[in-house]
Write a structure and sequence with these properties.
Elements lengths: L6 H23 L11 E2 L5 E3 L2 E2 H17 L1 H6 L11 H18 L10 E2 L5 E3 L4 H18 L2 H18 L16 E3 H18 L2 H18 E2 L4 E2 L2 E3 L12 E2 L1 H18 L2 H18 L11 E2 L13 E2 H18 L2 H17 L11 E2 L19 H17 L8
Length: 414
């Protein structure tokens, strides 16, 4: 008989991983004290492999260090004996966020106000505006930084980005989407999901009704178009009219992406009190955990084909770190909101696989790319970066849920 899951033990283990391993890795190895921002072309051992700075990573790092300051001070203080050490020092987190903000505010946008894809380490030009996803991470990072500091310039920049992006979203085909360019007449689940959350967070901070309405529009696209309840999956791509495409790309399912998307939906629809959408999102988390799980070798596969054939997605049979981390948090949140036992059953399996395969204890972070059999590979997937986002975000959000589930005081609201 399997023993009940000890959530207090999980909470302590996640605190230790976040404050004792992951955050110290980034503080020790990644902060660029000369030019500002973070080094994110970095190895598992912390060695900087390139000083190029992908704006995607800078902005995600801005979110993470701002969110640590906003959400984790109480948790760090309750981790007995750790307060004041680097991994649990709120001022250190805020100092990193300040450095990233200075870099992105000086070098992050082109003359038209668009967020560029990459800069060289000193901020000089590298690659210009090639991805609307960078706009999404700009919104998330700037909003969280403004929440941490009250910086009105950061909030104004986020609102200006919102205005520009809304115009782009109203004209499909008007925006680039590296590292996965969209063919003409194709729309992506990833665009709708990122802006549902980015607009939502900005709406909470700014109090602007038009921003909240925009967030709900994007969320409704996710739930009403890309989610296919009869087939029990979320498609990554649809045609311009919102219909599925009978092609390898059109049949692509990325279980970890769908799971991540659904916890976005839970945050949004819990706030507005839409219990039906919340139930649908929780059900969708279960579909994709079951669909993505490798019954033979364990872990969540990167991609599946809706018809059961070979998936179109690059590295489809790999076991990347981020689907596991997204599932860890999503399953805990689904359990908190639904009370369903299956959530913790699946959480235990994902958690055990993740902690058995990805941590690099001698250095503190996690390795990112494993093949189906759990062997590390080095080919670039999407971007040649390692950045402080999926793992620390999942840990800090999971700590919040676990604090609520175990009855600890002081946990932040969603």
């Amino acid at each position: 008989m399997i023993a009940p899951l000890d959530l207090t033990a999980v909470l302590n283990r996640y605190r230790h991983e976040l404050f004792g391993s992951v955050v110290p890795f980034w503080l020790q190895h990644a902060v660029d004290h000369q030019h500002g921002g973070l080094h994110s072309c970095i190895g598992d051992d912390g060695v900087v492999q390139s000083t190029d700075k992908y704006m995607w990573s800078q902005l995600r790092g801005l979110w993470t260090f701002s969110a640590l300051y906003n959400r984790m001070q109480g948790s760090a203080a309750r981790h007995e004996g750790w307060l004041g050490q680097a991994g649990t020092d709120p001022q250190a987190w805020l100092d990193v966020a300040h450095g990233i903000y200075r870099f992105v505010s000086q070098h992050g946008q082109d003359e038209q106000g668009r967020w560029v894809f990459a800069r060289h380490g000193d901020g000089s030009p590298h690659t210009g505006y090639t991805s609307i996803y960078t706009d999404g991470f700009a919104l998330l990072g700037l909003t969280e930084y403004a929440r941490a500091t009250g910086n009105q310039d950061a909030l104004a920049s986020a609102l200006a980005t919102f205005k520009r992006v809304r115009a782009l979203l109203a004209a499909p085909g008007s925006y680039p989407s590296d590292p996965y360019p969209l063919p003409e007449g194709v729309q992506a689940h990833g665009v709708a999901m990122i802006f549902s959350l980015a607009f939502f967070e900005l709406a909470l901070l700014s109090g602007q009704a038009d921003v909240m309405n925009a967030a709900l529009e994007e969320a409704d696209k996710v739930m009403g178009l890309f989610r296919r309840p009869r087939q029990r999956y979320v498609l990554e791509f649809l045609d311009a009219s919102g219909e599925p495409m009978d092609s390898p790309r059109g049949r692509a399912i990325v279980p970890g992406h769908a799971i991540e998307s659904m916890w976005f939906m839970l945050h949004i629809y819990q706030h507005v009190g839409n219990e039906q959408r919340m139930a649908e999102a929780i059900e969708c988390i279960r579909w994709h955990t079951e669909l993505g799980w490798d019954a033979e070798h364990g872990g969540l596969l990167l991609a599946r084909d809706a018809a059961g054939g070979e998936a179109w997605w690059p590295f489809a049979d790999s076991k990347l770190w981020w689907p596991q981390t997204e599932a860890m948090y999503a399953l805990l949140l689904a359990h908190e909101l639904s009370g369903e036992a299956w959530c913790l059953d699946w959480f235990r399996r994902v958690d055990e696989y993740a902690f058995a395969h990805y941590p690099v204890p001698q250095h503190g972070e996690w390795t990112q790319r494993l093949d189906r059999y759990g062997r590390k590979f080095t080919e670039t997937v999407a971007l040649p970066v390692k950045d402080p986002f999926h793992l620390p975000r999942a840990l800090l959000l999971s700590v919040e849920v676990l604090e609520r589930l175990t009855g600890e005081q002081g946990a932040a609201e969603l």
